Amino acid sequence: MRRQNGCLPPKRLPQLDPLMGTDVVLQNLGAARKFGFLDLLKSRHDTHGLTFTTNTYLRTTINTCDPVLIQNVLSFQFHDFGMGPLRRRSASPLLGRGIFTTDDEVWQHQRALIRPSFVRAQVTDFTIFGHHIDQLIALIARRNYTVDLQQLFFRMVLDSNSEYMFGESVGLMSETASESATTFHHALDYAQQGTILRLRLGNLMFAHRDKKFRDSCRTVHAYAERFVDQALEYRRAQAMLPDEKKDGNDGTRPKYVFLNELAKDTDDPILLRDQIVNMLLAARDTTAGLLSFTFFMLARRSDVWAKLRADVLQHYCEPLTYDAVMEMTYLRYVLQETLRMFPPIATNSRMANKDTVLPVGGGPDGKSPLLVAKHNVVTYSTFVMHRRKEFFGPDADEFRPERWETLRPGWEYLPFNGGPRICPGQKFALTESSYTIARLLHAFSGIENLDPTEWREQLTLSLTLNNGVQCRLTPAA
Q: What is the C-alpha to C-alpha distance for residues 464 and 289, in angstroms, rounded to an integer?
């Protein structure tokens, strides 16, 4: 296969231990502890090119930030790659058999259940968002306008998205938030940290013996089971109704509730629980992270804040509508630039499920065909790719929303992944984020940064800020 396709070996990262790669793993773990794993990855690509291999514990990984290679893995040769058993084992204590760990027919079926939740008519309905933003603004006022916005965004997004997906809010923004909801929120954080550590350990994940991690996974599952009970009750109630009175059979079009559709699809409580945990995780982290990074930059860039607020106020109306938000052009640029610099999934991977050939990645210049053997892993970094100067200009490391006035990128810009596994909720996330930002910039006339330090990565299954968004907001007159 290598000879027939003219494949050349890729570059290799120099390793003191080329067989087991202990030095590389320790370097990765050390950088992560110092909040610098992504910078380490970027420096490796700066030194060794777009594509290079590493060997860790009898596993070959192809590391890349080449959009052509990534497009082939995620799209053109989609069926040659999957999540792979290593990813499933690392994430299974938390995510079980959910959409983020499964492949083939199981994944296709799960995605088909999720997709109707994000049809335009539901995504553009601001009624659910509005109530939770009202709570957020009131909470900021009660805290005398001095807050860590990231903590509040995570709570608010989980509240609004759980109501959207399951018909009931977790209730973290309430003054009377239940102890179980708060415990679940913190357990989900810790369980994610353990999951990414297990993934970094690879074939040595058996050495990860953290009781708190296991307890956190059990806490998350126990909280999700309340939604499982609701789903099973809905299923029983539907079964007792005559056919003509079941949802959708009486000529009406009920609102699509993901939890109800899950209940129609299966009565397996474990499968229901796994799907719910996967969706709760997706519902919280990526949107909350996007909002946090946006306000982290706004607090440090008074010029961007002023320009953005002027754009928001020019098109603002009461009640705020989807069409009005879509008119806020500079708001769109700010979100695109935030997603470029801080993509929600900063690194991702796929495992080859058979021997296959990629058209690029081989040879000293990375432009020759590359043989990928079965079970080899392709790890790709959107964080590194989004900061490549040949795509985004000599100031690619700077936050400059104006670049999006003329920028029309292709596969070099992947904030929501690409190919068949592209995020089905991307429009939902962008709409919710846009609405939230517009409401906050209408409610507050200024923002003061209270944190003199640079951003520190918190890299679990998604990218967030280790140092949060410490700021003081000024209420509008």
A: 5
